Amino acid sequence: MNNKDNYAVILASGTGVRLWPLSTIKKPKQFHDLLGIGKTFIQLTYERLKKIIPVENIFIVTVTDYKEIVKEQIPEFLDANFIFEPRVMNTAACNLLAAMTIQQINPNAKLIISPSDHFVLHEDEFIEKATIAFENADDDKLITLGVAPTRPDVNYSYIQFIEQPKAIKKVKSYVDKPDLEFAESFILSGEFIWNTGILIWSVKSVITAFKAHLPVMFETLEKYFVLPQEIQNIKTLKPIYTTLDVTSINKGILEKADNVYVIPTTFGWSDIGTWSAIYEKYKYTGEDQDENQNTLLCNHFSGYNATNNFIYSTEDKAIILDGLENYVVINSDKGLLICPRSNVQQIKSYVSDLKLQKKGEKYC
């Protein structure tokens, strides 16, 4: 494809605390090889996008703390293509920052927005569906790639679309992070798919959407972009950017807009947002599992009355479990987590509590 008007934006500011103690603020999950395949998530994301976007048109939104680790893991990445956030402000702000930055470079740009920490199994289909999305992005469409849900999950956006023969479907309803009861009803209906968070649109379309649905955010950030480009930098951006509303692109734009479209896919997508999600991936493939359905990503394990557990260790030590079922046991140089798999959504709260403890922050 490699059209000069096509750009990619990789979102890489997140801290991934739900995957503590491996993912930490200093080195979050996008910079780890969590699946043991020899490449980190951000490396996989960059290489996938490089197949459809010229290298000079790939940008990364992140914070300055992660610049060196990005350069270490992607040595060819261009310094000029960093878009630095002064502070992590959720996905609405960083999407608008990226769109307005690239609009200065090319007002005709079309963007594919990709989180840095997702996994795609079938890249050929990803390329096919992304190509279709780019072909339709000129027509004032906000396009997302969707996948069939595998479980009721309150952390995803649910999309109901109007059935039609074309690959791209008009979205009928868009619900971000419903409560469990609604998520269960969406799954039972068979009419909803998940948003992968991979988004395709023109800079014109998305900026128009911000003007309509988040006008204060647009007007505030515009104060930065009317500055002469030679003084546009993180210092002049900070006092403006840090006043923006902390909201997601899902809540702020996609739930409200009436020009949202989805392309259903089957390319083997996973958010890998929790230890339970990684467990499900290994359970599905059958890799690294013993006869009691324990997933073993460690050097030595002995189990007694231990079933359906997920054990992950970055250190060379023996792990022995007795009497545990459906637990995650995660060992790293920062900490040891032993938690029911049903409670992995609480890890973010555990880490917040740990930060408040005396000397606890150094483990986060």
UniProtKB/TrEMBL annotation:
Molecular function via GO: mannose-1-phosphate guanylyltransferase (GTP) activity
Superkingdom classification of source: Bacteria
Pfam families per UniProt: NTP_transferase
Keyword Flavoprotein: no
Keyword Cell membrane: no
Biological processes, Gene Ontology terms: GDP-mannose biosynthetic process
UniProt domain Nucleotidyl transferase: residue ranges: 8-281
Keywords attached to this entry: Nucleotidyltransferase, Transferase
Stated name of the protein: Mannose-1-phosphate guanylyltransferase
Organism: Algoriella xinjiangensis
